[in-house]
Amino acid sequence: MRPILLQGHERSITQIKYNREGDLLFSVAKDPIANVWYSVNGERLGTYNGHTGAVWCVDVDWDTKNVLTGSADNSCRLWDCETGKQLALVETNSAVRTCGFDFSGNIIMFSTDKQMGYQCILNYFDLRDPQQIEDNQPYLSLPCNESKITSAVWGPLGEFVIAGHENGEINQYSAKSGEILKVAKEHTKQINDIQSSVDLTMVISASKDCTAKECCWLSLTHIWLPSLQSDLLTPLLSRPSWTMYVVMGGGQEAMEVTTTSTRIGKFEARLVFFHAAYEEEFGRVKGHFGPINCVAFHPDGKSYSSGGEDGYVRIHYFDPQYFDFELEA
Prior knowledge:
Blueprint: E1 4-6, E2 13-18, E3 24-29, E4 33-38, E5 44-49, E6 55-60, E7 66-71, E8 75-80, E9 86-91, E10 96-101, E11 107-112, E12 120-126, H1 130-135, E13 140-144, E14 149-154, E15 160-165, E16 169-174, E17 180-185, E18 191-196, E19 202-207, E20 212-216, E21 222-224, E22 236-238, E23 245-249, E24 271-275, E25 280-285, E26 292-297, E27 303-308, E28 313-317, H2 320-324
Antiparallel strand pairs: 1-28, 2-3, 3-4, 4-5, 6-7, 7-8, 8-9, 10-11, 11-12, 12-13, 14-15, 15-16, 16-17, 18-19, 19-20, 20-21, 22-23, 23-24, 24-25, 26-27, 27-28
Subunit structure: Component of the eukaryotic translation initiation factor 3 (eIF-3) complex, which is composed of 13 subunits: EIF3A, EIF3B, EIF3C, EIF3D, EIF3E, EIF3F, EIF3G, EIF3H, EIF3I, EIF3J, EIF3K, EIF3L and EIF3M.
WD repeats: 6-47, 48-89, 285-315
Family: Belongs to the WD repeat STRAP family. Belongs to the eIF-3 subunit I family.
């Protein structure tokens, strides 16, 4: 099937996220608008207007009641999903790079960038206490002095946050005490993306060192590593709930195109499908012009979406033959 093309942003896509049911798709970009779409047909349901800078991250809570966004305008904002009304505003000293709800929807976390003399900080707010938002005082604030956080996701039951850092480390931060529970040095360069399996047993990371690694949630022990092609310079990835397939994207950063020889330049990116058990590539999909910045699987595993440097979001529905495919051992 031909992909559904979503055109609602003027600049490159930074993150896309499905809600739990998969009927809505949220997208943010390097422009100040956050969009929400119907995933079944690509119709735009509405926008969340208020940011004045690039929006780096977006998340939606378990029951699709509230939406959380973090922006380069030094703010993290909470929205009513249905009406688009801004419910809360938390101002920061630097850009908000990652954000997310825990599974109860009561606790939010977000991290700020290390810039303008300010260090990277991981903040936790309890939405049940409005005074924390009004006073801009999180119940827990963790400075990350050595390396800034580039991607983060909540762990099972909201007990901890797994964060990927600029130096390639993956850390577990307790949401109660703030201590670092586990540290894993699985990558040699910046981690671009961290995503979890739907059953919350695995977490998978992708890095600028052209590797992608799957780890156990609790121990962060490495399970498998696909052998990526050299043209996938900045892989992103996602894994559906019921298959052993992993899809990865990437490509050469736009700022590096003019400094790279045409012989080795790989500006045209592809989505690559790997089998998680056999660690073998079995398919590629073209489409975006320029690098692919984010990938997300529909919760039912029957479709996926990708956001690229070209400013488009593409919703891909699998053909029936995909579900009958079996990789020969």
